[in-house]
Design goal:
This protein is an alpha+beta fold. The protein has one domain. Helices cover 23% and strands 12% of the residues. The protein contains 11 helices and 7 strands. The strands form 2 sheets. It has a 4-stranded antiparallel sheet.
């Protein structure tokens, strides 16, 4: 399926300048989340997953066998190396290890005081005949995390407004992470990344990739002849965030843009779509120069294949691929489709009416 959307052009005009990582700064206890709200759903229902077993055997085979030494021998070896001023088998001075990156999520600060909403209330104030459709929403008293039965029972319209109200206050942008700061990315539980269905960033997890971006409210308007079900039939309420994967600098024309779309649904969990142009990025500062897809080709960069590619391979056989099946299972009102139908892949193309260039 090919989806040609005009969202990209209108997004820039309506986008909120605040950065958010899902809902920035919102914490969530992973175990309470998994146990109480059943939001963690393994990709394979059977208790034994042969693919996971094979992946484990491959990884174990690649690791060097540990030396069978006693604690006393290890201490003696370390002490001797320290006295000799060597590191391992290499005859060089011992380097100071870099400081461990701080993993505490940033605190939200109210920095936006212009009173604007950056949505229809600013651009089309008479859209609902002068009425505010959110007046009927009963918001949770506790919004420190959103994985509660109270939140899930809300309508898609009210969930969108709640998320937007948490995005708006802090207008600061997040910083990019570099070098050793990515170390924690390889210590994360990738199963949680792939299988947890949530509107929150897990507790004590920083958004190391795609940290800087723009957020906007959107609407999904389908082509009248499209054959797909669920959200593909149309959705009035959605949140979109466009971001760059890693640090961008003015003197090097290189970006790796991507986006995530969240479609809240009445009385249940949200539908989500992720898309990028390519893992390896593009030689342009124009985010909309190329079409974005939900299934990416594998890394061209050998280092990337041996690092982040290997990390992703611990939980999936299809690197860069995200299914949109769940998007088709339920519509925006939470109604289950009797015969869901979804595309294998979606392509997104920005509708350029501004004449964007490759320049910074």
């Amino acid at each position: 399926m090919r989806v040609i959307t005009s969202v990209a052009a209108s997004l820039i005009a309506a986008a909120n300048a605040a950065d958010t990582e899902g809902v920035r700064g919102q914490a969530l206890d992973e175990f309470a989340y998994l146990n109480n709200y059943r939001a963690y759903e393994p990709s394979v229902a059977a208790p034994y997953d042969p693919r996971a077993y094979v992946r484990k055997q491959v990884l174990d085979a690649e690791r060097p066998a540990p030396k069978k030494e006693t604690i006393a021998e290890l201490k003696e070896e370390a002490l001797s190396a320290h006295k000799a001023g060597v590191r391992g088998d290499k005859k060089q001075s011992r380097r100071r290890d870099p400081p461990a990156p701080e993993e505490k999520q940033p605190e939200v600060k109210v920095t936006r005081t212009d009173g604007r909403y950056y949505d229809w209330r600013d651009y089309e104030p008479d859209l609902y005949g002068g009425k505010n459709p959110y007046d009927k929403c009963v918001m949770p008293k506790d919004t420190s995390h959103l994985d509660t039965e109270e939140y899930q029972s809300m309508s898609a319209e009210c969930k969108t407004e709640l998320i937007w109200s948490l995005v708006l206050p802090d207008s600061r942008r997040e910083r990019f992470y570099t070098a050793y700061e990515f170390e924690s990315l390889f210590n994360q539980d990738m199963n949680l990344t792939y299988d947890a269905v949530t509107d929150n960033m897990p507790k004590n997890r920083l958004k190391k990739t795609h940290p800087v971006g723009l957020t906007s409210k959107i609407e999904w308007i389908p082509h009248p002849d499209q054959p797909y079900t669920g959200i593909f039939r149309g959705a009035e309420h959605g949140i979109m965030r466009i971001s760059d994967t890693t640090k961008t600098v003015p003197h090097k024309s290189k970006t790796a843009p991507g986006f995530g779309i969240k479609f809240p649904r009445d009385g249940m969990y949200s539908a989500n779509i992720l898309a990028m142009f390519a893992f390896d990025g593009q030689n342009s500062f124009n985010f909309f120069k190329n079409r974005w897809v939900t299934i990416l080709r594998e890394f061209n960069n050998k280092c990337a294949r041996a690092t982040i590619g290997k990390q992703l391979a611990t939980v999936t056989d299809h690197l860069g691929a995200t299914s949109v099946m769940d998007v088709a299972d339920f519509d925006q009102h939470g109604n289950r489709e009797e015969e869901p139908h979804w595309p294998f892949q979606i392509e997104f193309e920005g509708y350029d009416v501004y004449g964007w260039t490759d320049e910074y």
